[in-house]
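Researcher: Next entry in the queue.
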Amino acid sequence: MNRAEHLINPHLPVLSNSDSAPAVLHLMDEWRVTELALVQDGMFLGLISESSFLDLELFEGEIGTQAIDIKDVRVLPQAHVLDVLKNASANQTSVVPVVLENGMYVGSIPVENLIQRLSHLLGAASDGGIIVLQLGERDQSIQQVARIVEENGAKILSLSVAPTADNLIEMHVKVNVQDLNPILQSLARFGYVVSDQFQKDEFNHELKNRYDELMRYLNI
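Model: Structure for this entry, 220 residues:
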């Protein structure tokens, strides 16, 4: 369930050259997206954005007769969910088309579906807390962190690492307990630097804030 082909919304409509600007804007508004795929005879022609039609709202002719900016945004069906996220972020689109190597259109992934899948992968829907560790590039030891967590009667639900601007490593550890104090104390004894932590009501409030900010950014 982690490939692009598994995230497609089969009901999301596509555009054709015979559509009019008002019809396109109506579809985008109805489906709460800012882009839709342009398809002809089953072949993917590109991704058309809402902004291309704002000046053509009163135009009743076919969009195929207009000079409209078309983006070549696509992923292969076997692309991993993280590659789909990278594509959506790089192009700032609300949908990501899935296209075969020969150009045949398969379907489109709404960012909303992508967020739901990532939420599942990261254990966001599960109760627990999050610990953020700041590590040197040579100091990261996933096995040791996992052992410390397990010795305190908890389990890791998800773990991710990312480089920081100051050449450090930031490790986000989601565990299945909300009281993080025993784990934090053990990490401190082993010399780990905890840069942030979210637990109980504090965690739920912070997660909601970040989700709301993401929804506002994506405008969906």
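Model: Strands lie at 35-40, 43-49, 70-71, 95-99, 105-110, 129-135, 156-163, 169-175, 193-198.
Researcher: Noted, moving on.
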